[in-house]
Write a structure and sequence with these properties.
The complex is a heterodimer of chains A (about 220) and B (about 325). Chain A is of the alpha/beta class. In chain A, about 35% of the residues lie in helices and about 25% in strands. Chain A has helices spanning about 40-50, 70-80, 95-105, 110-125, 140-150, 170-185, 195-200; strands spanning about 1-10, 15-25, 30-35, 55-60, 65, 80-85, 160, 190-195, 205-210, 215-220. A six-stranded mixed β-sheet of chain A has the order 6-7-8-3-9-10, with helices on both faces. In chain A, strands 2-1-4-5 form a four-stranded antiparallel β-sheet, covered by helices on one side. In chain A, helix 3 packs across helix 4 (about 110-125) and helix 3 (about 95-105) packs parallel to helix 5. The longest helix of chain A has 16 residues, at about 170-185. Chain A is globular, with a radius of gyration of 17 Å. Chain A starts with a strand and ends with a strand. Chain B has about 325 residues and is of the alpha+beta class. In chain B, helix 2 packs antiparallel against helix 6 (about 175-215) and helix 2 crosses helix 10. The chains are: A alpha/beta (about 220), B alpha+beta (about 325). At the A-B interface, helix 2, helix 3, helix 4, helix 5 and helix 6 of A face helix 1 and helix 7 of B.
């Protein structure tokens, strides 16, 4: 699904922030991406999301070498991934419903064709009563769940979550983790970037990708 | 789907005071917020540009109509002037000139100005009460062409020169063709002004689009991450700018139409005066007509389309640059 081989990345003429990173993500797998703050977790996620290009090495995404892909392919590949940002990135002028429906809307689908689907998912993540309101009136936990629902609505093959529990209290963090585990059971490969050791301990069987000094260490 | 997660009770406490702004389903908001675009300023610029372009088009239409009238009059009317020649009775020369003119194909009517009428033509310059007996006053014949007929003025001139002494034919061609050339030049200049106005509008829209993209950078980024293509994002901006363009075009176009309506009414009142009627005789009435109104409406639509297309191109180029 995702394969990195000796990937290196530097910004401008600076030092390499990622060095010789090699790993793969298999379908339906579950892994934590961890490491100290500033280790490059978000950068690695951005490489997978194709919002950054490596300065060296090979990245293969869903069977495509990203070095030579065009914009159309890039869009197609992004549609197979869901992403939950640390700061949610909900569009403030859209309702919860419209935010969650966004990935379907950008595919050009008619609103009536996905309405039931989105409403069902919103109820599933506990936002059934909050679907008509704008993000500024949502709590931190509700925003987080809306962001997760937005990532899930297209039933992605791969879900990337950047510090999904960073803005919520421990009990909500535990509940969100259970949500990710459920998703994984339904067939979605999950990558959760976090430095929350307690969170990782709750799902001790998961694979850990640990970033440190620009290098990646894998603990299966 | 699997079991839904539990609702967190703490959420209720986290919530701010519920100033709940709700919107029903099925009414998707534009992805580019209207408030994030310098909409009012852009609508004003577009309205001013459309107004100026509308005025230019209307003025060009007026001149083009007058030009068409002048061109038609070239083939419609000509004048023979017969100057008195010593030893040749002028009435005979006039009668011969009239006969030659009537015999010319395409001439529908020959009106011979009598001696008194010809003398009266001089009154504006020489005053009244003069004795014209001593003056060699030329005589005038006005020829009117048959509708659709194109008289052969060259042959007529040749015949007159050979058979009538002192006769000259003035078919006004040179004079009217100069006026027509001037009119065409004005129309060409108007088209040039129109192109400049559209270019200025396009530049203003390009700047506004870049500003809107910079202001909505985060939205554009999120749209990319959720799988939006450049074409989709450009379409979202284009839709907003088309709306602004239509609004500005409608305001500017309506202002131009109101201006022409008022000017037309003022001109009709002025035409009642002697000076006004003379100007109307030369330039035609101050009315842009149906085509003038249609061209103003078309310009408003054109400006709106230019706005939409330029915004789309600007977004596509900017997104291309970002990648």
């Amino acid at each position: 699904m995702v394969r990195f081989e000796n990937v290196g990345l530097r910004y401008g003429m600076g030092p390499e922030v990622l060095r010789d990173v090699s790993f793969s993500i298999e379908p339906q797998s579950f892994q934590f991406l961890t490491g100290p703050s500033g280790a490059g977790k978000t950068t690695l996620l951005r490489l997978i999301l194709l919002s950054l290009r490596p300065t060296r090495g090979l990245i293969d995404l869903f069977g495509h070498d990203v070095a030579g892909i065009g914009k159309d392919t890039l869009t197609t590949l992004r549609r197979r991934m869901g992403v939950v940002f640390q700061d949610f990135r909900l569009l403030e002028h859209l309702t919860t419903y419209e935010n969650v429906a966004l990935p379907l809307r950008v595919q050009g689908r008619d609103e009536s064709s996905y309405r039931a689907e989105v409403v069902e998912l919103l109820r599933w993540v506990g936002l059934g009563e909050r679907m008509h309101v704008l993000p500024p009136v949502l709590s931190g936990g509700e925003k987080q769940r809306a962001a997760i629902a937005r990532a899930l609505i297209v039933q992605p093959d791969l879900l990337l979550a950047d510090e999904p529990t960073g803005n919520v209290d421990p009990s909500l963090g535990r509940r969100l983790l259970r949500l990710f585990v459920e998703l994984n059971k339904s067939g979605t490969a999950i990558v959760i970037a976090t430095h929350d050791l307690a969170l990782m301990d709750q799902f001790g069987g998961a694979r850990r990708l640990v970033l440190g000094d620009g290098r990646l260490h894998i603990y299966d | 789907m699997t079991q839904p997660p539990e609702r967190d009770d703490q959420d209720a406490a986290d919530r701010e005071a519920p100033v709940v702004r709700e919107r029903p389903l099925g009414r998707n908001q534009p992805l580019v917020p209207a408030a994030s675009i310098a909409g009012r300023a852009l609508v004003t610029v577009i309205a001013i540009m459309t107004f100026l372009a509308g005025l230019t088009a209307g003025a060009a239409q007026l001149v083009a109509d007058a030009s068409a009238g002048w061109r038609a009059s070239v083939a419609r009317e000509a004048t023979i002037q017969v100057r008195p020649v010593p030893g040749r009775p002028i009435d005979q020369e006039v009668a011969r000139a009239a006969a030659i003119a009537r015999a010319t194909a395409g001439i529908a009517e020959v009106r011979v100005f009598t001696k008194e009428e010809s003398e009266r033509l001089l009154e504006p310059w020489l005053g009244t009460g003069l004795n014209f007996e001593e003056l060699p006053v030329p005589r005038i014949l006005v020829l009117r062409a048959a509708p659709g007929g194109r008289p052969d003025f060259a042959s007529l001139r040749k015949a007159l020169t050979g058979e009538v002494r002192g006769a000259t034919l003035d078919d006004h061609r040179v004079w009217v063709e100069r006026l027509a050339t001037m009119a065409n030049t004005i129309v060409a200049l108007a088209i040039g002004v129109l192109v400049l106005v559209l270019s200025a509008t396009a530049l203003a829209v390009a700047f506004a689009t870049r500003g809107a993209m910079a202001g909505n950078r985060e939205i554009v980024e999120v749209l990319h991450f959720v799988g939006a293509s450049d074409s989709f994002i450009a379409g979202e901006f284009q839709r907003q700018f088309l709306r602004l363009g239509l609004r500005g075009g409608a305001v500017g176009g309506a202002a131009a139409l109101v201006f022409f309506a008022i000017a037309s009414m003022a001109a009709s009142a002025w035409v009642a005066t002697p000076g006004g009627s003379q100007i109307e005789a030369l330039f035609g009435g101050f009315s842009v007509g149906v085509w003038g109104f249609i061209s103003v409406a078309l310009i408003a639509v054109l400006v709106a389309l230019v706005t939409a297309v330029v915004s789309r191109i600007t977004v596509r180029r900017t997104l291309g640059g970002l990648s």
